[in-house]
Write a structure and sequence with these properties.
heterodimer; A: 224 residues; mainly alpha; MetI-like fold; 11 helices; 74% helix; 0% strand; globular; B: 418 residues; alpha+beta; Rossmann fold; OB fold (Dihydrolipoamide Acetyltransferase, E2P); six-stranded mixed sheet; five-stranded antiparallel sheet; elongated
Chain lengths: 224, 418
């Protein structure tokens, strides 16, 4: 069992899930409530990673943050190194790759909030922002939990993007899924098996928690 | 209170100090309408595409009923006052303050309008306790003041003991009180109630209405109360505004508007069980009456002339199509031919059926036209009525109301001439 890879993967999943929640909240809010007609384009863009091969996504992340792109040069200027083959690179790639898993549950749960509750809040003097935090978000809590858990689980088992962007540097970018790949390539099936089982178990537990949580919909009573 | 702006003057509003004057007669503009709404909107898409709303009304403090069938524009009107629905054109003034003016590009944000709104399905926040719901609109106040005000209103609406319960755990009447308390605790300048009591039993309804009245005696603000219940109109309203297909077809004190309805929709809402298509057979200008023939058939009714003045002016002749409405409770029934009556209309007919419900008997009589007559069970028994029997119906001229089917033609004294 490669504990180093497991810890790295857990760290990557946690950082990605929390960062993506902060990024996905405003995006999902905008998609759910904007009156703009062309918002379907934004919806399509955030859903792209669902259908795109991870290698393609990873390739574009490399290009976008490569030393020949303005974005890459800016990043290099700030940090002194390129994004490729670093933990931060993995985080950026994972955020993009898991975007639909965070945005979609949030959009769905925002849309499920009775619009009259939002109107009631506004009539009672609350601003849009305040209404979001006092009414929309608390009533979307299961969507938030789903978004975080799915992002975490999706990142936990991610392979293609990590390989493209991070390479395979032990302790830095070698995640658990890449470790399995390495072990199979090296012919050590027993080690691959034990690592795979950990991955399988963690993923199943997370998904089971998501579905268990989602059974508890509002209105909630103290004894429910 | 801030002085009225130019736009308010243009709308014929007087300074706010005139607000203490007694209510003027409905035929005149009120000295200071506490709320004036002038709005036009056309819905292109959404739930009711093609629906257009064109309304103008001004109301003083106190309860004004918005009355009409579903889809007539009542809720949309509330939405416009609250700022949830934006008119295409118009002006909305509340207590001398312009909330909306399309010409001056004024559209005060929903959250800044000082409006209390009780939605039709209440819209209580399901994740907050009763007390948190009530305190929701008090965020801007310091905590002790919040606690004091919330405590006060929970007490006066008799829900203080429910403060820590969730909305899902309390009864319908208690939810209603919570919604009212949540709206009123913010001390709004106008209260919008969308069928707030429709789902309640009569006793609960009565108690809540009493609480609301008591509250309104203390703080006189305009209250717009949407309903399609006749009983509520008469029980609550100092004033009723009748909505019909996006327009206001009548307004004034309930007994004036619903007592002498001028359009068929108002008539049905006001409880005219008998509505007949008819044509004018003869006009007796000297007598102040005219004779109408009910269609189809030969039954003739004498009806008052005065009530169709507007039609006479626009050239109503014999043969003109009209509608006549008579309340079932305004018809007398006799089992012998009556003599020596002042009533001009005595019709012979056959009793076709008797139907008893809620201490009332509805008798259906065929006189060549089918009439419904309302009787008490006692009267029904003492006359020994039975279907097939010959009876006489007696209708006073002034119990026959001429109705117009077309809302466009209604001349509303409160409505400015175009």
């Amino acid at each position: 069992m490669n504990w180093q890879a497991l810890l790295l993967t857990l760290r990557l999943s946690l950082v990605t899930a929390s960062a993506l929640l902060l990024i996905a909240l405003p995006i999902a809010y905008w998609i759910a409530y904007s009156p703009r007609r062309w918002k379907f384009l934004a919806q399509a863009a955030t859903a792209l990673p669902l259908v795109m091969p991870p290698t393609v996504l990873g390739f574009y992340v490399l290009v976008a943050f490569g030393s020949s792109s303005p974005l890459g040069r800016l990043y290099q200027h700030w940090t002194g190194h390129t994004l490729a083959f670093t933990f931060e690179g993995l985080v950026v790639g994972s955020i993009l790759y898991s975007m639909p898993f965070a945005v979609q549950p949030l959009v769905n749960s925002f849309l499920a909030v009775d619009p009259q509750l939002i109107q009631a809040s506004r009539v009672l003097g609350a601003s849009r922002l305040s209404t979001f935090f006092r009414v929309v978000l608390p009533l979307s809590i299961s969507g938030v939990a789903t978004a975080v858990a799915l992002t975490f689980a999706h990142t936990f088992g991610e392979f293609g993007v990590v390989l493209m962007v991070g390479g395979d540097i032990p302790g830095l970018t070698r995640t658990i899924s890449i470790d399995v790949f390495d072990k199979v390539e090296a012919g050590s099936y027993a080690a691959a098996n034990s690592t795979s089982l950990v991955l399988l178990a963690v993923s199943f537990v997370i998904l089971a928690l998501v579905y268990a949580w989602n059974r508890r919909a509002w209105p909630r009573t103290p004894w429910a | 209170m801030e002085p009225p702006r130019l736009a308010a003057h243009a709308l014929g509003m007087r300074p706010p100090d005139a607000a203490t004057e007694p209510m003027a007669s409905p035929d005149h503009l009120h000295p200071c309408p506490a709320l004036e709404v002038l709005a036009r909107k056309r819905f292109v898409a959404g739930a009711a595409p093609g629906f257009s709303l064109e309304i103008h009304f001004a109301v003083p403090a106190g309860i004004s009923i918005l009355f009409g069938g579903s889809g007539a524009g009542k809720t949309t009107t509330l939405g416009m006052v609250a700022g949830i629905v934006q008119p295409d054109q118009g002006r909305i003034c509340l207590a001398g303050r312009v909330l909306f003016d399309s010409a001056a590009a004024i559209d005060v944000d929903v959250s800044r309008r000082s409006v209390g709104y009780v939605f039709q399905d209440l819209a209580l926040f399901p994740h907050l306790t009763v007390e948190r719901n009530v305190r929701y609109g008090l965020r801007h106040l310091p905590e002790p003041e919040r606690r004091r005000r919330a405590g006060e209103i929970l007490e006066s609406f008799r829900i203080a003991h429910l403060g820590r319960r969730m909305p899902a755990e309390i009864s319908g009447g208690e939810r209603q009180r919570t919604a009212l308390a949540r709206a009123l605790v913010t001390r709004p300048r106008v209260l919008l109630l969308d069928e707030p009591l429709s789902a309640l039993d009569a006793a609960t309804k009565g108690r809540i209405v009493d609480d609301l009245r008591a509250w309104n005696r203390e703080r006189r603000i305009p209250i717009l109360y949407v309903t399609h219940s006749r009983e509520e109109v008469f029980a609550l309203g100092e004033r009723v505004i009748v909505f019909e297909k996006g327009k206001i077809s009548a307004q004034g004190p309930p007994q004036d508007v619903l007592g002498a309805p001028r359009t068929e929709t108002v008539a049905q809402l006001a409880g005219f069980e008998n509505i007949f298509d008819a044509e004018v057979a003869a006009v007796h200008e000297a007598a102040g009456t005219m004779t109408c023939r009910l269609l189809p058939g030969a039954v003739q009714l004498e009806v008052p002339l005065a009530r169709i003045e507007a039609r006479i002016e626009s050239g109503v002749e014999s043969g003109a199509a009209v509608r006549v409405g008579v309340r079932a409770g305004d018809i007398l029934l006799a089992i012998e031919e009556p003599r020596g009556l002042s009533a001009r209309n005595v019709l012979r007919g056959t009793l076709t059926s008797l139907e008893e419900k809620d201490f009332k008997v509805l008798a259906r009589v065929d006189c060549g036209a089918a009439f419904t007559v309302l009787l008490t069970p006692d009267a029904c028994r003492s006359l020994a009525l039975a279907p097939g029997q010959a009876v006489w119906l007696i209708l006073k001229t002034h119990s026959c109301h001429l109705l117009r089917g077309d809302a466009e033609l209604v001349r509303d004294p409160d409505r400015p001439k175009p």
